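Review session, final week

We close the course with one last complete record, chosen because it touches almost every idea we covered. It is allantoinase, a protein from Hymenobacter crusticola with 444 residues. Go through it on your own first, then we will talk.
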Amino acid sequence: MPELAIKSTRTITPTGLQAALVLLADGRIADVMPIDTVVDCPVLDVQDLALLPGVIDPHVHINEPGRTEWEGFNTATRAALAGGLTTLVDMPLNSAPVTTSVANLEQKLAATRGQLHTNCGFWGGIVPGNAGEVEGLIARGVLGFKAFLTHSGIDDFPNATEQDLRQVMPILARHGLPLLVHCELTTDDNTWKLSDKRSYQNYLASRPKSWEDEAVALMIRLCEEYNCPTHIVHLSSSNSIAPIAAAKANGLPLTVETGQHYLFFSAEDIQDGQTQFKCAPPIRERANNDQLWDALQAGIIDFVATDHSPAPPDLKQLESGDFTTAWGGIASLQLALPVLWTAAQPRGATLSDLARWLSENPAKLIGQAHCKGKIAKGYDADLVVLNANQSFRVTADLIHHKHNVSPYIGQELRGVVEHTFLKGKSVYQRPTFAQLHQGEIITR
C-alpha cells in the first residue's frame, strides 16, 4: 500500500520526461503511474515543478575525523540535502587519519554516528605500502579506491607510484571495484614559483595539461593491462578526450568525470588574487572547457562531480591572494545541481541529461545502479523537486557548508531545490530541514 504519491507533469524517468504519479512505499518507488491515476494515499502535487532522482556525488571531501574544522559529516550532509543531494561518497583524505587501513576506516565510521543526514559511502585510499590493507577494506564495504599520482596536498596521503598501482589493480579487478585516480604526473620545472604569486595565469601554467595527459595515458595502459575498472576524476585537460574516447571504443572498463567548476568558469574569468578559484587540476581556458562540454554531451565524459574540498578561510589565503600557499579546493556541494543546470541549459541540455550526469551514471560507479539514480519501480525513493525555471543569487547566508568561502558567491544560478526526499521521507522543504538523521551508510 503506497504511503505517499508525488504528482508532477515533469517527472524525469529513464525513458524521458513524462507526466506521472510516483508511488512511494517502504522507502522505495512502488510504481510510476499515469498522472491521473486515483490512489488511496496522500498525494503531493508539485504541478509543473520537475521531479528528478536525488543527486549522487561520489567525490566529496568531508574531512572528518581530524579536520572537522574544515567541514564534517553534520554540515556536509545538511548542505547536501538543501542542494537535492541524497548520496555522497567520502574521499579517503583530507580526514586524519586517512582511510588507508581498516583501523582508520573504523574511526571514520564511528565519526558518522548521529551525523548523517544523507546516505554516505566511502572510498579507500591507495598509498605506498598499504596494499596489504586492500582486501580488508573491501571486506569492510568500501566502494572502491582512490590514488593520487602527484602530491595530494597533505603529507599523510602520499602519491602512489606506478608500481604501487600494479600491486593493487589485480586485486581490484578480481573484485570488480574501481580505482579512482587523480591524474597529474609532476614532470615539469616549477620555476613559476619565483614570479608573481598572485597571478592566476602563473598558477595555471604551473600545472600544465601535459601533467594530466601523461597520467591519463598511464592509466589507460594499466587499465588495459589489468582489465581493472579505472575512473579518471575531475578531468580538466581537453587533450585527453581523444585517447579516452579511443580507450572506451576499445572496450576498456574506463570511466571519467569532470567537475562543475570546469564547466561553469573559465581561466579568462579569474582575476589575480582570487584564490577561491584555486583547485587542482586548475580551471583552464574557455576553448578547453568548451571541449569538455562536447565530451560530456557525447558521453565520453560519464558524469559530473563536485570534488567538494573546503577549508577554513585563512587557508584559502583570501587576503594575500597567494596562489602558491592557498589551499587548492572548491566548496560547492550544495550548489552542484543549479551550477550544472545553469551552464547546461544554454547548450541545449535537458533535465534528462541532468539526471544522467548527476544521478544515473554516478550510481553505476558506486555499485548502486540497481537501486539508485533513477525514478523507476523498485528504486530507492531518493528524490528532488526542482523549480528548473527559477533563478537565485548565491549569497553567503544561503550556504550550509561549515565555511561560506566559494567562487560561486555572487553568481546568478538557475534551478531552485524546493523539496528533497530520502527513502520516501521529506527531509528538506525550502528553506527548512524537515527531518534530519535519516542517512545510512552505503556499502558495496
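Two points worth writing down before the exam:
The first helix runs from residue 73 to 82.
The two ends are 29 Å apart (CA to CA).
Good luck, everyone.
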